[in-house]
Amino acid sequence: MKKIEAIIKPFKVDELKDALQNLGIMGMTISEVKGFGRQKGHTEIYRGAEYDVDFIPKVKVEIVTSDENVERIVETIIKTVNTGKIGDGKIFVMPIDSVCRVRTGERDEDAI
Question: Which has more confidence, 71 or 86?
Fold first, then answer.
C-alpha cells in the first residue's frame, strides 16, 4: 500500500476530486495548507502599506491506495492540476505499513 500526498492550487480541488472519482477512488482527505517552494511569496498592499506574503495557500490531497493504483492516480493528478505555471505543486508517494478501519476492525487492503 502507498500514501499519495499532492500539494496543489486550491482552485483545482473540485476538478481533481471529479477526476479521481472517475478512476474509482472511494476516499481522500483534503486539507488547507500554506507553504512555499520556488514560487516563494508575493507582495500585497493593504490600506496603503506594502507587505510580503511568504506562505502561499495550497491544498493537500491525501490518498491511501494499493500499489497497483499508484501510477494511474499520479498520472491523473498531473494531468488534472497542471497549468504549466510555477506553483502547480508536488506529489509525494510513501509506503504504508498498515491500515485499520476503526468501525469494523478491517485491516490493510480491506480497510482502504
Answer: 71
